[in-house]
Write a structure and sequence with these properties.
Rossmann fold; 7 strands; binds nicotinamide-adenine-dinucleotide; alpha/beta; single chain; 254 residues
C-alpha cells in the first residue's frame, strides 16, 4: 500500500531511548517510505537511532539537544532543513513525568517542570516548523499525548496528566488554525508501555500488573504506538485533523 510518504522528510523528537516510542516511530516512517528521518533527543543514544534509520537505506540526522529550550529547537529545525531541504512530518514524542510530587504537596514550580517538558516543548517545535509547512502548504504533525488525561487511578502524577491534557487542546487548536494551510495535526494517546517512561528495572512486571485492568488484557507495545503515529503522519489520514486517538487496549473509551 502506498502511504504517500515517498519523498517526505520527518523529524521525530524523543527518539534517543532505545526502547521508547520515538525510535520505533522513526524506524517505521523510514521503512514505510520517508526519504529522510531526522531524530533528536537530550541523550547521546540518539546517534544510535540515526544509525539504525540509515540501515533501512534512508537518510537520517541526529541532533542532540534539550527540546524545552527555544534556541535549541530553532537550531534543530534549521539543521534539519539545511540537511534535507524541508520538513513534512513532525512527531512530538519527547516527554515524560518530570515531577512526581504528590498533588496536595506540589508547588507551582513543581508543576512547571511537567508543563515545560510535555507542553511547552511541543509549542516550541510546532512554532519552529510551521513556517516551512505553511510555505509549502502541507504538513502533518503528530503529538504524543497520554491516556492519563482520562485515567485517574494509575498514579501517573497530576501535573503530568494536566500537561498532556494541554497537548490535546494544543493539538485541536493547531489543527483548526492550520487547516487552511494544508497542515494537519493529530494526537496519539498511549496507554502504559514498557519504555523508559516506566521507572525501575522491572518494566514488564509493572505493565503486566497494569494489564489486569486493561480490557484487551495487555499493555501497549512500541509498535502499537508507532502504527497509530504512522497513520496520522501518512496520507491514510488525509481527511482527519484535530483527532485524539487513544491507543490503550480499551482503557480509555472516548
Ligand atoms: N510509555 C508509557 O507508558 C507512556 C504512556 C503514555 C504516554 N507516554 C508518552 O510517550 C512519549 C514517549 O515516551 P516513552 O514511553 O517512549 O519513554 P522514553 O523515556 O523511553 O522516551 C522518552 C524520550 O524523551 C527524551 N527526553 C526527555 N526529556 C527531554 C528533553 N528535555 N529534550 C529532549 N528529549 C527529551 C528522553 O531522553 C527519552 O529518550 C512521552 O511523551 C510520554 O509522556 C508514554
Amino acid at each position: 500500500m502506498d502511504l504517500g510518504l515517498k519523498g517526505k522528510v520527518a523529524l521525530v523528537t524523543g527518539a534517543g531511548s532505545q526502547i521508547g516510542f520515538g525510535k520505533q516511530i522513526a524506524l517505521l516512517l523510514a521503512k514505510e517510505g520517508c526519504d529522510a528521518v531526522a531524530v533528536t533527543d537530550i541523550i547521546d543514544d540518539v546517534n544510535l537511532t540515526a544509525e539504525d534509520v540509515k540501515k533501512t537505506g534512508k537518510k537520517s540526522l541526529a541532533v542532540k539537544g534539550d527540546i524545552t529550550n527555544k534556541e535549541n529547537v530553532q537550531s534543530l529545525v534549521k539543521q534539519v532543513v539545511e540537511a534535507f531541504g524541508k520538513i513534512d512530518i513532525l512527531c512530538n514524542v519527547a516527554g515524560g513525568i518530570a515531577n512526581r510530587v504528590p498533588f496536595d504537596q506540589a508547588k507551582p514550580e513543581d508543576w512547571d517542570k511537567d508543563f515545560h517538558l510535555n507542553l511547552t516543548s511541543i509549542l516550541l517545535t510546532t512554532q519552529a516548523v510551521l513556517p516551512y509547512m505553511q510555505k509549502q502548504k502541507s504538513g502533518a504533525i503528530v503529538n504524543i499525548g497520554s491516556g492519563s488525561t482520562r485515567m485517574y487511578g494509575h498514579g501517573v502524577g497530576n501535573s503530568y496528566a494536566l500537561s498532556k491534557a494541554g497537548v490535546d487542546t494544543l493539538t485541536k487548536q493547531t489543527a483548526f488554525n492550520e487547516a487552511k494551510n494544508g497542515i494537519r495535526c493529530n494526537c496519539v494517546a498511549p496507554g502504559p508501555a514498557p519504555t523508559n517512561f516506566i521507572p525501575g528495572p522491572d518494566k514488564k512486571g509493572i505493565i503486566d500488573m497494569l494489564a489486569k485492568t486493561i480490557p484487551l488484557g495487555r499493555g501497549a507495545t512500541q509498535t502499537d504506538i508507532a502504527n497509530a503515529t504512522l497513520f496520522f503522519a501518512s496520507e491514510m489520514s488525509s481527511y482527519i485533523t484535530g483527532a485524539i486517538l487513544h491507543v490503550s487496549g480499551g482503557s480509555v473509551l472516548d
